[in-house]
Each structure stands twice: as C-alpha cells, then as structure tokens.
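Retry 2 of 3 after timeout on previous attempt. Resubmitting structure tokens to design endpoint.
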C-alpha cells in the first residue's frame, strides 16, 4: 500500500474546486482558511460571494476525495483519508 500526501495548498485547492462547483461560481471567487482546534478538530472557513461558511472535517475529506479523483485519477474511500497536523495541515491517503 502506498501513501499519497496532499499539502495544505492542495487541500485548499480541493475545497475551492469543490465549493465553486457546488455554488456555481468561479474557483477564483472562493477563499479558504484551514484551522485546527483542540475542541473541534479540523475545519475550514470558506468565503463565497461575501458569505462565510464553515466546513467540518468530513466535508473537507469529501473535497479531498473528489480532488484525488479529478487531479490524480485516484479512487479513494473516506476511511483511506486522514488529516494530520505537523507544521501545516496535510491529507494522508492510503492508496
């Protein structure tokens, strides 16, 4: 089994692409800020057309799964992806 690691920038790109498609806007109109808090875990604040919305970890993983498929041709499952925090947030995928 191999590991694929997505950088924080790739996670942000994945969320931007996912939200742009869901909201029917251009990718450039989406802004994302990732965070990790001890109480709540991983989350992303997303701004689309001046409105803010929070995504929880499962929403972030959904975006990562779509990104893996569209950009890398990798079909992964939710249980194959875990978010990790070292110096930055990364997504580690068992492929």
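Retry 2 succeeded. Sequence:
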């Amino acid at each position: 089994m191999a590991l694929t690691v997505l950088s924080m920038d790739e996670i942000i790109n994945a969320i931007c692409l996912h939200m742009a498609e869901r909201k029917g806007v251009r990718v450039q109109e989406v802004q994302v800020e990732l965070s990790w808090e001890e109480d709540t875990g991983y989350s992303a604040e997303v701004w689309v057309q001046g409105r803010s919305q929070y995504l929880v970890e499962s929403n972030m993983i959904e975006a990562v799964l779509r990104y893996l498929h569209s950009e890398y041709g990798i079909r992964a499952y939710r249980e194959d992806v875990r978010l990790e925090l070292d110096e930055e947030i990364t997504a580690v995928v068992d492929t």
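Attempt log closed. Strands lie at 3-6, 30-37, 41-48, 51-56, 81-85, 89-94.
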